[in-house]
Each structure stands twice: as structure tokens, then as C-alpha cells.
UniProtKB/TrEMBL annotation:
<dbReference type="InterPro" id="IPR051682">
    <property type="entry name" value="Mito_Persulfide_Diox"/>
</dbReference>
<dbReference type="InterPro" id="IPR001763">
    <property type="entry name" value="Rhodanese-like_dom"/>
</dbReference>
<keyword id="KW-0479">Metal-binding</keyword>
<dbReference type="Pfam" id="PF00753">
    <property type="entry name" value="Lactamase_B"/>
</dbReference>
<protein>
    <submittedName>
        <fullName>MBL fold metallo-hydrolase</fullName>
    </submittedName>
</protein>
<dbReference type="InterPro" id="IPR036873">
    <property type="entry name" value="Rhodanese-like_dom_sf"/>
</dbReference>
<dbReference type="InterPro" id="IPR001279">
    <property type="entry name" value="Metallo-B-lactamas"/>
</dbReference>
<dbReference type="InterPro" id="IPR036866">
    <property type="entry name" value="RibonucZ/Hydroxyglut_hydro"/>
</dbReference>
<feature type="domain" description="Rhodanese">
    <location>
        <begin position="376"/>
        <end position="464"/>
    </location>
</feature>
<dbReference type="InterPro" id="IPR044528">
    <property type="entry name" value="POD-like_MBL-fold"/>
</dbReference>
<dbReference type="Pfam" id="PF00581">
    <property type="entry name" value="Rhodanese"/>
</dbReference>
<feature type="domain" description="Rhodanese">
    <location>
        <begin position="270"/>
        <end position="361"/>
    </location>
</feature>
């Protein structure tokens, strides 16, 4: 049986495509559906079904557009209550795709409608399981997301459901089955996913902490909930879009890719209250940017950081991109529900600068200069905007940790009366922080070029985390 994984690294997301005898099915598609349609056309196949493992939180699925464009039936598992036409399958129900079979296995826990799909080949042999966010490679889905939409679904209740789903529905299945999860390392839907994106179920039974056969329910719940960080703020909004429905991507693309002159761009920003989102690299942004714009580089984990740093998916946006990158930017924004892009600056920032309009710059400093300041005992305050886990692992002595996704809650830790330096691992996140600080009125600071990746290669003193259990 051939199962094609279509992986999108910036979201750590995996969709799946199967085809048999001119019939195809897509599982958990991304927002832009043309690639799936094109894939089916190569096989001269008709997309018969769009299977959804659950109502996703970290991205907006393309199931509705795929249904409209192909006539495919949308299938959810038990308990799903979408606001549009869809087939709500029963536990154990079997769907046919050519000579293949897809069996519904209801596995609540990540959410109450979460469903695993058992794939059965043309010889009636079980091949693999498409697990959604129920089972990852090395991890399982976090059970604390649904309560942000339905308050009575506490993380403890969902974790208990997940314990039963794994023990009673997944673990009894044959070891040879291939596990096809919805996400890999880098997704916020789990806490310790592997960089591998498939594995056998038998090996996962051996190495996945959540599948230990001797775990009690209480032990499972405690281990699962320990170490969970707050989910990104856009997650509940994406869940609602997936439940209630959304605007067609074609309309979003038409609106978002409207070219605007500097004058029209400025007028749109003033009239709509739109946020100016600059998607260029950190080095180019620092040399010149439109006042009050935010920098989130398109070449990084763009969609995830947009979701972290812009609280409302309905926020009107105006884009500054490199030429011919505006369509990619609008597409990637739509993947996480930011559908209200109003246009882009024609010709990019260069057009703005040549028009004579005001712009700002951001201070940056080389690592070598930081070392010189340290050697002269003239080093200012350093603020590290990496995640707490990165900071705990290793950091510069005396550096203060303010994770980027918490910056708006801790602005008081950034002094206005004296200079300071900021850094992340390599410069991507620290420039996001720089743009936010500039927008809020801070000027007396510099971003360290190269970040901690270069700082750790210097002689500057660093502190490494020591596990408390080793302090004997």
C-alpha cells in the first residue's frame, strides 16, 4: 500500500494522500488545496474523501475548499459537530478508496472527536494508522487545548480519555503497523516529538514514554501534564475556524495580493488600523523599516511566530515583502487563520525609501564588539529572548531571560533609561523583539548579530543548567 506523506516544515505538519484504482483520499490537508488536486490529477484520480482526524488548533485545514473544488466528502470521527455538511462517522465504520479500506477508530483524548484511521491494503492486510494528534513519534497529543474552547473539558479529563484510547484502541494493534502522525518536532501540539515523522507501532511501544505498558492512569496523567507550556494564543481561534467554516482561500489571496503604492499603503494603514508586517530578513529590516512595523521573517517559522505575536487572527495586515514573495506570505498567513491581509507595498521597502517617506533603523552589534565590552568591564544589561528551556540549558552569566512570546507581558524588564543588548539563538527572534520594542518606544538597545550560537563560541562566561537530582 502506498501512503504519501506531504510534509510542511515551517508548521511541522504532515498531510497524507492515498490512491487506488482512480479513487483518492486526503487526510488533514493544509489550507492551500491545489497541490492535492494536482497530485490526484497525476494519478488520473478523483478525490473521494477528505478525512479529518480532529478540529485542528495549530492550522486551518483545507477541507472546505477541497470539498468545494472536487466534490469530495468531508469525514470526521464521532462527536464532531461542524457547522457545515460533513459525514460524522461511527466508531468502526469502514470507507473504501478503490481497493483500499479506511477504518475509523475513535481515539478521544487530544480532543473529544479525535480519530485514528486504520489503513487496510488491497489484500485486506492492515498497513498503518493515521493518528492525527493522538499519537506522535516519541510523544502523544497535549490534552489541554480543548478546554480553551469548551471549559468543562479539563486537561485531566482529556488526559484520562487519552490513556484509555492508547491502551484500548492503539496499543492492541499489530506491531508492524506504520504510525503516520499529523506533526513532527517543532509543533506546539506536543512537548517532545521526534524529528522522525514515521515509525512502526512496535518500536513506539518500546520507546514512547506514553506507551509504557506498566503505567497507571495516574502516572500517565502526571507525566503528560508535566512540562506543558501555555499554547499559542491563536490556537482557540483556529479551532473555531475549523469548526464553523471560513472564507475561501481564493478570495483571501485576491484581497491580500493587492499591490499598493507608498501613498496608498500609508493611507490604508491610517484608515484601517492595519498592522504593518515586514517579512524580510533581520539584517535587511534593521537597515531600514517603516515606523511601527513588526518584523517576522518569511524564511523562519513565520506562521508560528505570527500566531504567537499577533493575538487576533482578524487583525488587518499590510505586508512588506521582497518582490514576488507576497503570495507566499499571504498563503502562509492563511494557514494559521490570518485572513485579513489588505495588500502589499509595491516594490517592497526600497519603494518606500525612494518615495522620501520616513523610516527607522534598528541597532545591531557584532559578537566581537560584545566581547570587547565584556573585557573592558563595560558590558550593559543583556536580555535573552530564547525559550526558558534554551536559557536553562546554557546562557550568559547575568543575562536576563524574557522569552519572546512573553515580551508584551514583561516590558517593564526592558530599561528605557540605560542601554541594553538583546539576543536569541541566531538573530531571527531577537529582531522580532527589536521591532516590538521600537514600536513601543524603546531606542537605547542593540541586537547581537549571530545570537547565542556565536556568543557561546567566545570566552564570555556561561552558566549551564544542573539537574537538581545531581546535587548530592
Amino acid at each position: 500500500m502506498k501512503v504519501e506523506q506531504i510534509y510542511t516544515g515551517c508548521l511541522a505538519h504532515a498531510a497524507y494522500y492515498i490512491e487506488s484504482k482512480g479513487e483518492a483520499a486526503v487526510f488533514d490537508p493544509l489550507r492551500e488545496v491545489q497541490p492535492y488536486i494536482d497530485r490526484a490529477q497525476i494519478d488520473n484520480a478523483e478525490i473521494k474523501y477528505v478525512f479529518e482526524t480532529h478540529f485542528h488548533a495549530d492550522f486551518v485545514s483545507g477541507h472546505l475548499d477541497l470539498q468545494k473544488k472536487t466534490g469530495a466528502a468531508i469525514v470526521f470521527g464521532p462527536n464532531a459537530k461542524p457547522g457545515y455538511d460533513a459525514t460524522i462517522a461511527e466508531d468502526g465504520q469502514v470507507f473504501t478508496v478503490g481497493d483500499y479500506k479506511v477504518k475509523v477508530i475513535h481515539t478521544p483524548g487530544h480532543t473529544m472527536e479525535s480519530t485514528t484511521y486504520l489503513l487496510i491494503d488491497e489484500n485486506d492486510k492492515m498497513h498503518g494508522i493515521i493518528t492525527g494528534d493522538t499519537l506522535f513519534i516519541g510523544d502523544v497529543g497535549r490534552p489541554d487545548l480543548a478546554q480553551h474552547v469548551v471549559s468543562e473539558l479539563t486537561e485531566e479529563k482529556l488526559a484520562s480519555h487519552l490513556f484509555d484510547s492508547l491502551r484500548n484502541k492503539i496499543m492492541p494493534l499489530p506491531d508492524h503497523l506504520i504510525v503516520y502522525p499529523n506533526h513532527g518536532a517543532g509543533s506546539a501540539c506536543g512537548k517532545m516529538m521526534s524529528k522522525e515523522t514515521t515509525d512502526t507501532l512496535g518500536n513506539q511501544k518500546k520507546v514512547n514514554y506514553a506507551l509504557r505498558a506498566d503505567m497507571t492512569r495516574e502516572e500517565f496523567i502526571k507525566e503528560l501534564l508535566t512540562g506543558l507550556t501555555a499554547p499559542p494564543g491563536y490556537f482557540p481561534q483556529n479551532v473555531l475556524l475549523n469548526i464553523q467554516g471560513y472564507e475561501s482561500l481564493d478570495e483571501i489571496m485576491e484581497r491580500g495580493t493587492q499591490p499598493l503604492s507608498p501613498e496608498a499603503f500609508e493611507a490604508a494603514a491610517n484608515e484601517t488600523g492595519a498592522l504593518v508586517l515586514d517579512t524580510r530578513d533581520a539584517s535587511d529590516f534593521a537597515k531600514g523599516f517603516i515606523p511601527n512595523s513588526i518584523n517576522i521573517g518569511l524564511e523562519g517559522n513565520f506562521a508560528q511566530w505570527v500566531g504567537e505575536m499577533i493575538p487576533d487572527v482578524k487583525q488587518p495586515l499590510l505586508l512588506v515583502t521582497y518582490p514576488e514573495k507576497e503570495e507566499e506570505a499571504v498563503t502562509r498567513l492563511s494557514r494559521v487563520g490570518y485572513d485579513n491581509t489588505l495588500g502589499f507595498l509595491t516594490g517592497g521597502f526600497e519603494t518606500w525609501a525612494k518615495s522620501g517617506k520616513d523610516y527607522e533603523t534598528a541597532g545591531r552589534v557584532e559578537v566581537g564588539e560584545v566581547v570587547k565590552q565584556f573585557e573592558k568591564d563595560a558590558l550593559p544589561l543583556i536580555i535573552d529572548v530564547r525559550k526558558k528551556s534554551e536559557y536553562d540549558s546554557e546562557h550568559l552569566i547575568d543575562a536576563i531571560n524574557v522569552p519572546l512570546n512573553e515580551i508584551n507581558q514583561h516590558l517593564a524588564q526592558f530599561p528605557k533609561e540605560k542601554p541594553f543588548l538583546i539576543h536569541c539563538a541566531g538573530g531571527y527572534r531577537s529582531m522580532i523583539a527589536s521591532s516590538i520594542l521600537k514600536q513601543r518606544g524603546w531606542d537605547n538597545f542593540s541586537d547581537i548579530i549571530g545570537g547565542f550560537d556565536e556568543l557561546k563560541e567566545t570566552s564570555m562566561p556561561k552558566s549551564e543548567y544542573v539537574c537538581p537530582s545531581t546535587l548530592l
